[in-house]
Amino acid sequence: MKATWDKLEKNWMQFEVEVDASEFSKSIEAAFRKMNQQVTIPGFRRGKAPRAIFERMYGKEALVQEAVEQLLPRAYGQAVEQGQVEPIAQPEIELVQAEEGRPFIFKGKVQVLPEVTLGRLSGFGIEKTVPEVADEQVEEQLNALRERLATLVTDEAGEVVNGSFVVIDFEGFIDGEPFEGGKGEGYTLEIGSGTFIPGFEEGLLGAKAGETRDVNVTFPEEYHAEHLAGKPAVFKVTVQEVKKKELPELNDEFAQQVSPFKTVEELRGDIKNRLTEAAQQNAEREFRNKIVEAVTNDAAVEVPEVMVSDKVHDMIHDFEHQLAQQGFTLEMWHRVTGKTHEDLHKEFGPRAEQAVKTDLVLAAVAKREGLTVSEAEIEAEFDRLLAMYPRQKADIERLRKNAGYRARMREDLLAQKAVEHLVALNTAA
């Protein structure tokens, strides 16, 4: 088999593949044996009809077509290996010659991984800075713990203010008529939380328990219920009870209640240590990201649109999964935000392009610096996953045997090695 490859513009390559006539004849003969087993020809058992009889009934073209369908993918794969090219999309193929007794020839073009011209790998002057944890941050964490154990107590003489919790009965009216979903009883609402539509919570400020008010509001134009969007409404609201949040006292008893520590000072120390550790991890992550970003921006590569499109598709899939964890669907998100699928594609586009460029640059760094990933390292990664997710053992073991998944894991591990290498280069004395 002969294969020629020639560069075109914008990461395209054209190719022509020629398979020996004898090889093509073998493929036609194999196609005949296969198809002869699948058809019924009067006077012959399946698979026993002579080829001349088969061709008289079904035509030689059927055999040629079957041979092409079987031979072409294999020949194309061999051509890719010979040319040492890395396609990133399905090829556009045109048959040139497919006749028995003559070489089988096809040609086409395909997009391939672009060439990356690396710039500097170090010398960017990036420094890692770890911010000091302030006492105020520790107090914020302590107050957050107090908030978790807060209780609501009745505010006998208090008026409704921001931060109050009110128990209300309400009913909404549009043009004097009640509307579906506009009524509630014994509903607890935190004033200032923004739970209700704009103007509702503000309309209760200053009210006292037992008071009834008319609260005038206008539903937002983008409100999820289309029959209410943009319409003015009046809510008749009765304040049944006004409550305020009461925080537990910050003392040693509190510390023992929320932690294994006996004193508040011990709890403070632990919180500061954890905040310091988190700050160090964030600083390390930011340092690594800045290095990778600098190396990526200093490199030159023409990012193929097909790779960006694939990355956007992956991002939308991840976004859909995040929505599902919150009880939403992508269709619901479209309705609430008013954004179309095309809007989402445009929104993710720049991030996707930068992500693809980063992946390409890291792969180029790994190649230039001679970084590799061994089979033992891949096996170790699977073992790590098993230790983290023992209940998923069957799925992980199945992926361990999947060649495609192993290839993706190798790429991920190689990218991680490239990042570690860049960090080392930029932290060397």
From TrEMBL:
Its main location: cytoplasm. PROSITE patterns: FKBP_PPIASE. It holds the Pfam family Trigger_C. It is an enzyme of class 5 (isomerase). It is found in: Cytoplasm. It catalyses: [protein]-peptidylproline (omega=180) = [protein]-peptidylproline (omega=0). Its EC number is 5.2.1.8. InterPro entries: PPIase_dom_sf, PPIase_FKBP_dom, Trig_fac, Trigger_fac_C, Trigger_fac_C_sf, Trigger_fac_ribosome-bd_bac, Trigger_fac_ribosome-bd_sf, Trigger_fact/SurA_dom_sf. Keywords: Cell cycle, Cell division, Chaperone, Cytoplasm, Isomerase, Rotamase. Residues 163-251 form the PPIase FKBP-type domain. Involved in protein export. Acts as a chaperone by maintaining the newly synthesized protein in an open conformation. Functions as a peptidyl-prolyl cis-trans isomerase. Belongs to the FKBP-type PPIase family. Tig subfamily. Consists of 3 domains; the N-terminus binds the ribosome, the middle domain has PPIase activity, while the C-terminus has intrinsic chaperone activity on its own. This is Trigger factor. The lineage of its organism: Bacteria, Bacillati, Bacillota, Clostridia, Eubacteriales.
